Amino acid sequence: AYGRAAGPFADGVDPADLRASGAYQVVTPDEAVALVRGLGRDRTFILTPLLGGLDPSFAWKGLRLFEREVWPHVRDLAD
């Protein structure tokens, strides 16, 4: 029904559970740079800041961290 969370993370997200699932990677900025650069130009990197119920303020912190510490090192791949 509309207005009700659904799916595997409907009751919230525990970072340890995400790491254990193997479906998502939780990485440091340096690891993110290596991951994205390792993909190269012909691959897609998907950033999921609002995964299943994460607090938006936490998601914004992650996006700002990506912008500040990862994007400057990988932006050349977007050209």
Question: Can you tell me about this structure?
Answer:
This protein has 79 residues and is mainly α. The chain has a domain of 55 residues. It contains four helices and no strands.
Compose a concise summary of this entry.
With 79 residues, this protein is mostly helical. The protein is built from 4 helices and no strands. It has a domain at 24-78.
Shape: elongated
Q: Which band does the percent of strand residues land in?
A: under 5%
The major beta sheet can be summarized as: none
Structural class: mainly alpha
N-to-C series of helices and strands:
HHHH
Average pLDDT rating? 85
Q: Please provide the count of β strands.
A: 0
Low-confidence stretches: none
The percent of residues in helical segments reads 40-55%
* CA-atom Rg in angstroms: 14 Å
Please name the defining characteristics of this protein:
79 residues, mainly alpha
Topology:
Elements: H1 15-21, H2 29-39, H3 56-69, H4 71-74
